[in-house]
Amino acid sequence: MPEANKIAIQDFSFYYDSCRALWNVNLCIRSKEIFTVFGPARSGKTTLLKSLNRLTDLIFGANHTGTVHLDETDIYGPNVDLTRLRRRIGMVFDLPTPLPMSIFDNITYGPRLSLTNRKSRLHEIVEKALRSAVLWEEVKDRLNTSALRLSGGQQQRLCIARVLALEPEVLLLDEPCSGLDPISTASIEETLFELKKTYTIILVPHNIQQASRVADRAGFFLNGELVEEGPAYQVFTKPRDKRTEDYVTGRFG
Amino acid sequence: MQLQEKIIEKVLLLIAFSSIIILTLITFFIFEEGIPLILNVGLKAFLLGEKWIPSKGFFGIFPMIASSFWVTFGSLLLGIPLGLACTIFLSEFIPPFIATLFRPAIQLLAAIPSVIYGFGGLIFLVPLIRNHLGGPGLSILAGSLVLGFMTLPTIITISEDALKALPPSYKAGALALGATHWQTIWRVLIPAARSGIVASVILGMGRAMGETMAMIMILGNAVRMPVSFLDSARTLTTNIGIEMGYASGDHRQALFATGIVLFFIIMALNTLAIFLSKRRAS
Amino acid sequence: MNRRRYVTQGIATIFIWTGALLTIAVMLLILFQILKEGLPVLRLSFFLESPKEMGREGGIFSTLIGTATLTLVAIVVGAPLGVGTAVFLREYTRESKMSRMIRFGTDCLAGVPSIIFGLFGFVFFVIKLNLGWSILSGGLTLAAMILPTIISTAEESIKAIPYSYREVSYSLGGTKWQTVTRVVLPSALPGIFTGILLSVGRSIGETAAVILTAGSSLVMPTSLFSPIRTMSVHFYILAREGISMKMAYGTGAALILFVLMINMMAQWAINRYIRRRT
Questions:
Q1: How far lies B261's CA from each of B72, B209, B216, B239, C106, in Å?
Q2: How far apart are CA C81 and CA C95, in angstroms?
Q3: Is residue B270 one of the residues assigned to a domain?
Q4: Which of A134, A139, B225, B264 is deepest in the core (most CB within 10 A)?
């Protein structure tokens, strides 16, 4: 069965005022795969992710050329409903960012905005999301306590659950394991394998080892340019471009 | 949804302009009431005339302008040394945790209504001055002393901010070169924080110029050129405050005109202070 | 040579300590004197009875009602305007000519003396808008006076909220307004509340603007259009006209107690709020 393109990025360049952050990116993300976007710091990875759910719209002076399609829709088109877009493409940030509310309220924050307010439905959503993020067993008895009291690893899984509660199609994960201990990291990586069955995932990894552990395909970014992309195994062990090879073998980092 | 968001943004924009709108309204209406009289009487006669007899049509406010400045400068004579002393005390002479007790006390000082200060001046200072220094007691001296205390919080909080904003290397450097604590304060820190301190003083002047109730209670009510600190007097503010209750027609317009003069003076002072503190920031 | 430096240091130290202690001493002196003479007057009947014989006897009940209603109007009008301005400045624009102009306007407004507000309120609310000397005229004038305070405290509280909270709300599909009402404002509430408390304290003590706009009637108000006398105006009239020293001290003591109480509550709120954030 041919794998459909979930996200198609064509000739996409991004600018903060007149400062160019992304240079003519051409990239296709396939449905229900884990695609990893890796590279040194300040190479545009986060900008790429944030422009996929249009979080970059919030920055004054941000503009772009080129197109990004989610399935058949141009996400920068004139009639795009941002709320629906951000429900379809969810994002988890590099630092755990629980909102200053209870665990329950954190998870239901998204659904309450536009989906439903019915208590019973909300409870269903919360349980399903927490189970998918492998956090249900640990917090099911204290859903009304403040989310700020959870440990770092739990908070990050809470952020994943929070995004899953909206039943998105694509997950954008920006270094989701930075700041976490190895055990939490391992559990989140395991969760990713489960999540891959349902969601398309774009992951900015904490390091190359993590990327090679979990990814199906990979793309190397350097200074805002997509240098090369392909199956993860090939990009990490037999890269076609010298710059990729230098980075992967640690000659710069 | 998008439409709702756009409407909300426009409403908030309008709300955000409320302070400018109010400021414009204030300026417009004060001027509308006062300018006709100034034009009638003549600007020079109004500002420099020494006779204020509304019933006969004499509207000269020079004594009031002079008294306002006398009282204000008098208050600075007390306020600057005392204010600097307290500022230095707060930032250099006591450990930080005691300062956190002292600072709220200063805020409380600022929160006390001016009528209470006026009353305090009335029952303590006025008899004291009358019995020991002569004159009616209700005097510029009493006003200056009370006003000096009232402007302390302004001078203290802003000067303290100015001192706190200095890089710690100034103090460390001076002490390392062998200066005593006091030399460091007096010759290095205070001069470095100079523009902030001056800004605080100018703002204090603005507050002093605008004070009404306490001054009504302790300055007496004499409409004449002051010649000594023991004289009773009337400032621009008390002129308005005392007579507004029963003025009408030209008289009332003259009080608004007094307000225009007051407005200009205080706006000038405040703009100067803002300008000075912006310059410090850059 | 060395000795002279240390002598200067010593003299300076004495001056500084004297100055600081003198300041505290004078403040305490005034407060103690008024409280000493005034506290005995403060019995329950004082608070519950209205002034009789032009204030020579009775209590201050009608002035309490006057003060309360005036402050209420001021807050009800001033708080939304102030918070709305702060929200706009921090959430809907970035630093630009317009925002600088708004801030300049707010700073200027903060410097306008209360007697000028009184003149303005008189000509605009009492005369032009035909509201007469009333709770409405006084309250609206006071609202204009407290606006700068509310704007700056609200702005500080909103500024203190981490950007990540907003980013999370947007990434979950929230609109700007939803983010403001569901995340930003609830978190900023303690700081905003403190600003409101401080404004209440200021309104209670305000006299010049109130006399010119709300009048000085001792009669119990019947509507927002009734004239009223606030506590501070009552105190001023009693003291200046020499009507009754006893009543003056009592009113003054009540005034001081209210203002101190409110400001101490605000200080406590600031401390708790700061401790929670850091």
A1: 16, 11, 19, 12, 21
A2: 20
A3: yes
A4: A139
Residue C67 · residue C139 · CB < 8 Å: no
Determine the distance in angstroms separating the CA of A38 from the nearest CA of chain C, rounded to an integer.
22
Give me the number of domains chain B comprises. Answer: 1
- Are A219 and A35 in contact, with CB atoms under 8 Å apart? yes
B267 touches chain C (CB under 8 A): yes
pLDDT at A2 over 60: no
Domain with residue B156: its CATH number is: 1.10.3720.10
Phi/psi region, residue B13 (left: phi>0; alpha: psi -120 to 50; beta: rest), is alpha
Check if B111 contacts C (Cβ < 8 Å): yes
- This complex has an ipTM of 0.90
Q: Which residues does residue A16 pair with via DSSP β-bridges, in sequence order?
A: A19, A62
Please list every residue in chain A whose beta carbon sits closer than 8 Å to the beta carbon of residue C182. 109, 113
| Contact at CB, C6 and B19, closer than 8 angstroms | no
**What are the pLDDT digits (tens) for A16-53?**
888 888 999 999 998 888 999 998 888 889 999 999 98
Q: Would you state the CATH architecture of domain A5-248?
A: 3-Layer(aba) Sandwich (3.40)
Q: Please return the burial class of A11, using the count of CB atoms within 10 Å of its CB with bins 0-12, 13-18 and 19+.
A: exposed
φ, ψ of residue A15 to 5 degrees: the values are -130, 140
Tens-digit pLDDT profile for residues B182-211: 778 788 888 888 888 888 899 889 989 999
Q: Which of C63, C69, C70, C73 is nearest to C230 (CA)?
A: C63
pLDDT, chain A, mean: 87
Q: Which tokens go with B127?
A: 């008899």
Paired tokens of C220: 């119990």
Range of the domain at B259: 64-281
Amino acid at the residue B32: E
**What is the three-state SS of chain C?**
CHHHHHHHHHHHHHHHHHHHHHHHHHHHHHHHHHHHHHHHHCCHHHHHCCEEHHHCEECCHHHHHHHHHHHHHHHHHHHHHHHHHHHHHHHHCCCCHHHHHHHHHHHHHHHCCHHHHHHHHHHHHHHHCCCCCCHHHHHHHHHHHHHHHHHHHHHHHHHCCCHHHHHHHHHCCCCHHHHHHHHHHHHHHHHHHHHHHHHHHHHHHCCHHHHHHHCCCCCCCCCCCCCCCCHHHHHHHHHHHCCCHHHHHHHHHHHHHHHHHHHHHHHHHHHHHHHHHC
Specify the CATH number of the domain C45-277: 1.10.3720.10
Residue B281: predicted pLDDT: 59
On whether the CB atoms of residues C73 and C140 are closer than 8 A, the answer is: yes
Beta bridge partners of A5: A30
Cα end-to-end span (Å), chain B: 43
pLDDT tens, C149-180? 999 999 999 999 999 999 999 999 889 999 99
Tell me the torsion sign for CA atoms B128, B131, B134, B138: positive
B268: nearest Cα among B208, B202, B204, B211:
B202
Tokens of A76: 């920068």
- Chain B residue with the nearest C-alpha to that of C113: B210
- pLDDT tens string A110-144: 999 877 778 888 898 999 999 888 888 888 889 88
Nearest CB partner across the interface for C173, out of A97, A99, A113 = A113
Residue B157 falls inside a structural domain: yes
What is the pairing mode between strands A170-174 and A89-92? Answer: parallel
CA B238 to chain centre: 14
Quote the pLDDT of residue B30.
94
- Closest CA–CA distance from residue C177 to any residue of chain B (Å): 7
Tell me which amino acid residue A157 is: R
In a domain, B19, yes or no: no
What residue ranges do the domains of chain A occupy? 5-248
